[in-house]
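agent> call fold_tool(seq_1)
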Amino acid sequence: MPHYFDEQPASSSDPRTVDVDLGDVRFALTTDRGVFSHGTLDTGTAVLLSDAPSPPGHGELLDIGCGTGAIALALALRSPSARVWAVDVNERARDLTRGNAERNGVSNIRVVCPADVPLDMRFDALWSNPPIRIGKPALHELLAGWLARLTTEGTATLVVQRNLGADSLHRWLQANGWPTERLGSSKGFRLLHVTQNH
């Protein structure tokens, strides 16, 4: 069964464009089959983009599981002096994100697969609608690896569907040394803010 977190999606291409208006920033988003949220801006990402605190104005920002690039584009437009790393294992997702950045005139996004992020790179902020459906062990390994790469003052903002384990993920983050606060709940999603344990 194909998944949006496959490296090479097997589904045929069917591009569809969505206009995204967040009030402060607007962009057109081309989506496709085989990449999360075909033909729409998914509810969780919409909650993250509307309710998350403002990203840092400078530094290195990170979007894990960038998909079509909605989060990366919003970060890049809101923080034009920052560099945004858009990371995804899915090749079609990376191509979509690159194309969406180019079509919207956004030049401060770097689109890469996870292995192409320099090992010594540290991030000032991480925003993600993480791939919950990869399963808990894989999700925990993914998040632990990237959270460990936040700077001393770095934070992560995650959006997770309540029915898909948001509260258990909150507890896991706390238990593993990442202070986590629930910023809010909307439309069945929790917004979690994660800081470094000093």
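agent> call fold_tool(seq_2)
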Amino acid sequence: MQIRDVCELVKQAKPLIYNRDMAEQIKVKGPADYVTQVDTNVQKFLSEKLYELNPHIQFLGEEEGLHAMTADTFWILDPVDGTTNLIHDYQHSTISLGLYEKGEIIMGIIYDPFREEMFYAEKGKGSFRNGEPIHTALADKLEDTIVAVGTAPYQKQFAHENFERFERVFMKCQDIRRTGSAAMDLAYVACGRIGGFFESRLQPWDFAAGMLIVAEAGGKVTRFDGTAVKPTEPGSILASNGKVHEELEKLL
């Protein structure tokens, strides 16, 4: 199985993302947590296509929810990372697909259909954007870069704690950004557009692909306390170019 074949499958979902009628068919999963018919259809389309590509690999998708898998190899898909953005036609939504094998992510793909940007990586082979190698930002200090933040909108009871973190980072870096798609933010860390990204509570489908793409681009991904990230466990994510990681860690 070649990564280019998987990328082509992911690209085929673009018309589904662009379907505004489906984007307006919305169900509420929880506070500030929505699913549209786009999410459902993209997941169905890709799960079927990935099965055709390799029927031996199991599948974990966001719209199924997190559950124990019975195999040591499976896909981890977020069909629309940035569903709230999609609902409002705020065009910052991505498809995020990671391949998990025996405790680690070995393939990661993040596709932005609005800008036709395909970020991807295989373990040990580097990271790429539309076929060109990418690398993390050169900044040695926070004051030389910008940082993206995630607001953890599903747990607004932690807003005060989170916004205190944002302020601490804001005072040390050039500026902060908020796209509303963790996968996009991780891709932007990988290609050097931002020096770092953090969010206090993310699910595996939010970061599985991105954690590999960042690492293969020369960056670093940990929990807020610096511990290793297990790809199947939800929790905090801190990603950076590696050089500003310790500085961010202390602020968080």
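agent> summarizing second result for user.
The domain at 142-251 is CATH 3.40.190.80 (D-Maltodextrin-Binding Protein; domain 2). The chain has two domains: 3-133, 142-251.
agent> awaiting next instruction.
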